[in-house]
């Protein structure tokens, strides 16, 4: 049985109907990864022995009536920022290669294990999670399955490419300033960044303490929602997790309500100005499909982005200060940025955090009248690997910095966002952000499902590698 590109529902159905065994899925997945990863460079580490053991344990329990496990026999991967027991968490950098292996799994990996999922390994990323292209990895750039000459986006580029290629149905990533939404956009898949504090970060390497989010990628809305349900839950060991993070489970029928009763608006101004015509056409297509008439302008968005830069640089710089002091061989792209961040004056950081509270109140007032905001996920489609510049609105930007131009103001205040994929006239994917109010992930998923149902989104495909 060919398992390339199958959804969670399709794979689980095949297992329950005994068309394929969990062991067969495991061996086929490993074979596919070993065959195609040299071209993609999505995996840094393949956890083959662990995956085979998990499959064996599952099949033993399977005969004890565990058919209701939501992710029974489903393979997945995680960004190499999540702790995997008995493996070194490399975080895309060789400075950690002499660290001791993790003594236990990240909280999210443990949750997935309990739901029957099979871990394939650790996926490539920008070093330290600092970048939007997955080029500044000590393990080489990840290549976009739609065009191997192009970037996969970052910093969770390996996670997005693995799912986009059809090698696994879903993967985990993290998002500080856009690191799930950017690669989801460029690789043409769905990405969910939940509300800040919704999903536990226990066992995830810290980059920016007050901005890091855990989220995931999938090839359809139903899979995205199913994995989200599994990842929800309270972890008392994560002091950053919100008290709202209970075991809220959504029946998929709730998501099938679609856009009914939800008021949507398009974000204009900053979000319209700083993207190319293809991104604006994608927004227009979504707006027409949802019959959106209203446009909202957030003049403070540019200040929000600047403030996000200050907070990210300051927190990351101070988190990595011990490594900077040791003068370890960090990559030439991250080192000066982290060093500069560690020297940002406290007054700048405090001022940025003060503005954060102001911006939260401004956006909260909008959500009293509007349920969903629509904006591009990236300013343009994937650029070429090694490309130093891109032109947006007659202005020269570096893709490594500016691919997160439109995502930073949103994650700055921790809003839940689902990035949905469309295809441009250039035959390259681009994503649209479906932005909801805090802890209303279900509204974002409802709109994503509505757009998927109307067949205006890019359908998942098995990329010919």
Task: Give a verbal description of the structure.
The model has no long low-confidence stretch (mean pLDDT 94). The radius of gyration is 21 Å and the shape is globular. Strand 12 (390-392) and strand 13 (395-397) form a beta hairpin. The chain is 37% helix and 15% strand. The chain has 17 helices and 15 strands.
Mean pLDDT: 94
Strand content: 15-25%
Let me know the number of strands: 15
User: Span between N and C termini?
Assistant: 19 Å
Reading off the top of the CATH hierarchy, the class is best stated as: Alpha Beta
Brief rundown of the structure:
With 465 residues, the protein is an alpha/beta fold. The chain has helices at 8-16, 22-40, 48-62, 107-114, 157-164, 181-187, 221-231, 252-255, 270-273, 277-289, 301-319, 321-325, 334-342, 346-366, 399-402, 408-411, 441-453, and strands at residues 43-46, 75-79, 118-123, 143-144, 147-151, 170-175, 190-193, 213-218, 264-267, 295-296, 372-376, 390-392, 395-397, 417-423, 429-436.
What tags apply to this protein structure?
Amidase signature (AS) enzymes; Carboxybiuret_hydro_AtzE; 17 helices; 15% strand; two-stranded antiparallel ribbon; 465 residues; globular; alpha/beta
Please outline the helices and strands.
Blueprint: H1 8-16, H2 22-40, E1 43-46, H3 48-62, E2 75-79, H4 107-114, E3 118-123, E4 143-144, E5 147-151, H5 157-164, E6 170-175, H6 181-187, E7 190-193, E8 213-218, H7 221-231, H8 252-255, E9 264-267, H9 270-273, H10 277-289, E10 295-296, H11 301-319, H12 321-325, H13 334-342, H14 346-366, E11 372-376, E12 390-392, E13 395-397, H15 399-402, H16 408-411, E14 417-423, E15 429-436, H17 441-453
Parallel strand pairs: 2-3, 2-6, 9-10, 9-11
Antiparallel strand pairs: 1-3, 4-5, 6-8, 7-8, 7-14, 11-15, 12-13, 14-15
Helix pairs in contact: 2-3, 7-17, 11-13, 11-14
């Amino acid at each position: 049985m060919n398992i390339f590109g199958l959804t969670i529902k399709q794979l689980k159905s095949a297992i329950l109907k005994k068309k394929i065994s969990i062991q067969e899925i495991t061996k086929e997945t490993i074979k596919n990864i070993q065959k195609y990863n040299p071209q993609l460079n999505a995996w840094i580490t393949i956890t083959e022995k662990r995956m085979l053991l998990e499959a064996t344990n599952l099949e033993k329990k399977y005969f004890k009536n565990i058919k209701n496990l939501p992710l029974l026999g489903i393979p997945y991967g995680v960004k190499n920022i999540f702790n995997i027991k008995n493996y070194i968490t490399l975080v895309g950098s060789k400075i950690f290669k002499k660290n001791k292996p993790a003594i236990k799994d990240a909280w999210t990996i443990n949750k997935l294990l309990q739901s029957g999922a099979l871990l394939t390994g650790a996926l490539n990323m920008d070093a330290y999670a600092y970048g939007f292209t997955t080029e500044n990895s000590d393990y080489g750039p990840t290549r976009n399955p739609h065009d191997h000459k192009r970037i996969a986006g970052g910093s969770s580029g390996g996670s997005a490419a693995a799912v986009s290629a059809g090698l696994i149905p879903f993967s985990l990533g993290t998002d500080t300033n856009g690191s799930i939404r950017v690669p989801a956009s460029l690789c043409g898949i769905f990405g969910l960044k939940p509300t800040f504090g919704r999903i536990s970060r226990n066992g995830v390497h810290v980059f920016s303490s007050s901005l890091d989010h855990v989220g995931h990628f999938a090839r359809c809305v139903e899979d995205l929602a199913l994995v989200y349900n599994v990842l929800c839950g309270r972890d008392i060991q994560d002091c950053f997790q919100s008290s709202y993070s209970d075991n809220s489970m959504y029946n998929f029928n709730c998501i099938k309500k679609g856009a009914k009763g939800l008021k949507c608006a398009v974000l204009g101004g900053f979000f319209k100005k700083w993207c190319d015509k293809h991104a604006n056409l994608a927004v227009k297509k979504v707006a027409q499909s949802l019959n959106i008439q209203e446009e909202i302008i957030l003049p403070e968005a540019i200040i929000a982005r600047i403030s996000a830069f200050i907070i990210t640089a300051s927190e990351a710089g101070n988190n990595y200060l011990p490594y900077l002091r040791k003068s370890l061989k960090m990559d030439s792209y991250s080192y000066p940025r982290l060093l500069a961040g560690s020297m940002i004056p406290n007054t700048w950081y405090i001022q940025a955090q003060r503005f954060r509270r102001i911006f939260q109140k401004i956006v909260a007032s909008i959500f009293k009248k509007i349920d969903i905001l629509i904006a591009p996920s990236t300013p343009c489609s994937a650029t070429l690997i090694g490309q130093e510049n891109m032109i947006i609105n007659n202005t020269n930007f570096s893709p490594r910095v500016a691919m997160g131009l439109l995502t930073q103001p949103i994650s700055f205040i921790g809003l839940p966002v689902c990035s949905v994929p469309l295809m441009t006239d250039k035959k390259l994917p681009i994503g649209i952000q479906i932005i909801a109010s805090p802890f209303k992930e279900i509204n974002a998923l409802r709109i994503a499902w509505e757009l998927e149902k109307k067949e205006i989104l890019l359908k998942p495909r098995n990329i010919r590698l």
